[in-house]
């Protein structure tokens, strides 16, 4: 059943067309991704479908009321003063209102100085709200909201923090938990993978795969597109086109389209050349026949040559018509993405080992040791991907390798021939006040022609080449920082999330550059597609342990999924463990006042839950071994 249908949808921004001719047909239960370069209007299209923005043209038919839609928004401006838990609860307005009414009445009833008529009033309100809350299955809804926060690794101590104070990743997790608890029939997700670590990403993918509603989303995460999308709508300046499957299937279909277009273009060019040659030949024959007819006096001979001339006129007119039809249906020459073929001399290094750590330990204070006894070597021409949960210490490890931080124990040794280039998330390597072109011209041996070619390859137009960092988007800043680093002459690139804020087209340009780079690369990234194409070794930081895996990212995931495959029985145990941990956290913050009996009972309940938690953990460990 079709639930969203648009016809000829268009939107302008500052007088320029953002998108136009958008025809969508989305049926219930589909998982649809909107795809295209930055600035093409993907987020604006989502907002238009949500009714947050008015379209300038076309029609939208929504066969599912907007009250049944859920929305994960990149830029939240309302509800920032709420706690994280209140923000999640607010995703179900009817239940949330009933819950607040019940809590308000409950608080009022604790007033010992309340008069009898006031007490009756508040008791009646509490009873009504309580019965309504029960009828809406409110307690199960609360438990589901809290369980979803735990599953996304948003710890209970953060639940009562103001939403505004959460990190980017924590805000994303709270938003996802809000959607899970609300269970809308249609979810709109705008860049849901931003700031999520690998574990949270994989959990979100599993949840979306099991979700029985409809999903509309925008993402630059190609692995996420492969895992979630049933179909992709590619947005372009001319309109949109639907492709079945995820990103890998889309790429295959685009490759077939490109090959078909190239074949048709070559065939049409051959036909065009043949028609032009034919027209030229018939024109020449006409001129010869016309000239010969003018030379003779004999009426019969003149008539013969005139007939020949007329026949050739008809012929070349017919061929001109055929050429005109060919031009009207002409296939454009396929545009190939420009490749970076400019190479600069990188300082060669003869030694096999560039960097080495021996029993390195680091912590920001005595009670906060990020990792301990890390022995790691970085070899020439390696591609090392550093992965792990948010907060595990990935950026800190990079800074230790570069000497920006000193270990609290152990050592870091760097070969004196190493020339390291560092891409940080703060983009400190950019010079405010200097245009992109000027910043490239400041690199060794860079010419004006080379600088313009490189900027063009990384999607800087002629005008964009004169932009200064303070005038650029985050995506443009990331592109410029990467170009400066890549052509700096470094023989070791240390990269901290270099693809954040970049669309897929730009990421693939960077991947091509990475593969051409003649030195060594150490990279921190949540882009699993990039890591899978690039990495020859994986370094995992998790829970203070640093573990190394030889081989590609795919080999790493296959090895770990084989070890960590979860059976139905294990999943049941895991769900029970999460429920007990939630109950334990709730008990720990429960206020019983000064009543010794209640306090003793509370402690006994906590001990019982803790004993059961330890038993379950042992059962799960035994099942794995």
List the helices and strands and how they pair.
Elements: E1 2-13, E2 16-27, E3 31-35, H1 42-49, E4 57-62, E5 69-72, H2 84-89, H3 93-109, H4 116-135, H5 138-151, H6 168-182, E6 186-190, H7 198-210, E7 214-218, H8 222-228, E8 231-236, E9 239-244, H9 247-295, H10 299-328, E10 353-365, E11 368-379, E12 383-387, H11 394-402, E13 409-414, E14 420-423, H12 436-441, H13 448-457, H14 474-486, E15 492-496, H15 504-516, E16 520-524, H16 528-534, E17 537-542, E18 545-550, H17 553-564, H18 568-588, H19 596-624
Parallel strand pairs: 3-7, 3-8, 5-6, 6-7, 12-16, 12-17, 14-15, 15-16
Antiparallel strand pairs: 1-2, 1-4, 8-9, 10-11, 10-13, 17-18
Q: What is the terminal-to-terminal distance?
A: 48 Å
- How many alpha or pi helices? 19
Q: Do you know the CATH topology of the largest domain?
A: Rossmann fold
- Largest beta-sheet characterization: 6 strands, mixed
Mean pLDDT metric: 84
Structural class: alpha/beta
Shape: globular
CATH architecture of the largest domain: 3-Layer(aba) Sandwich
Number of domains: 5
Q: What CATH first level of the largest domain would be assigned? A: Alpha Beta
Spatial order of the strands forming the largest sheet: 5-6-7-3-8-9
Give the percentage of residues in beta strands. 15-25%
